[in-house]
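## retry 2 of 3
previous attempt timed out at serialization; input unchanged, resubmitting
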Amino acid sequence: MFSKIRSLIFKFEPEVAHGLAIKALKYNFVPPKKIPNNKLIETKLFSKIIKNPIGLAAGFDKDAEVYNSIFDLGFGFVEVGTVTPLKQYGNKKPRVFRLEEDEALINRLGFNNSGSEEVLSKITRNKPKGLLGINIGPNKDSQNRLEDYLVCFRKFHNFADYITINISSPNTENLRSFHNKSELNELLKLINEEKKILNSAVPIVVKISPDIQEDDIPTISELLLKFEISAVIISNTTDSTRENLININKLEKGGLSGKPIEKKSNNLISKFYKILRGKILIIGVGGVDSGKSAFEKFLNGANLVQLYTGMVYKGPNIASIISEELINILEKKGVKNISDIIGNKK
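## retry succeeded, writing output
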């Protein structure tokens, strides 16, 4: 069905199409997709059993408007945001670009969202049906970015199944400096201290950039382990990897997502897995749009996967399609559960 109407949807500007998708989900114009329980793909995330390891990445439901409708589409978990303390417009439009031949997007949205108070209000009014993560970040013009993270953490720690610390968007100036050892150490130290003050048990997740240097991997891993971070998301969008793209929009500034970053993401997952070895969960992101692409993420060391661009190109039933394809792959290989293949790349 989606393949038949995609050409019509793609006649709209990407942000207009996204707004229409949010409205369609909000008003139940998209029918739910039931996924049968299957032990092959059932998994655990932060002590909770979920039906499948396929999540929707932050960026789609920025303002926590339609996460329950997304659960109804068959996603095992959903992450909303990025949410900043105060409402902000983001960067000037146009700021999202399709690269159809490349099955990719470039965005320079800049953390556009309605602010932490409004997002919190929506979540308290609309209890999540499934496992919900909240992705937080600082305001663009903030004088104290560390405090911005803490403000959001205080607001959401009682309402999220996990909180993601976003240090990796390429669209907020100097945000990625938090990958530096001293800055990351200070940020995670403050978050951990705040967690203790609040007597909070909420799991902390860190979302990293795909553009880090290989030499940074051991240092980042060491800090993740030091502060007992529960999971790492690998990875955000990239502001490089343009050389083999076809569409003219490759010249646009912003973060590239979709199929072109699949290999880069997988390589990074594999390198982190060799150090972390199951001590910290890995959520793999980048180019997931099929059972096969998800399977490759698991082989490289991901415990779970997330997607966003894949849904833009493959439609709202993508979670159920990937689930079915994964089940078929695992059955053919005689695997009892998805957890048995994690890190088994040869």
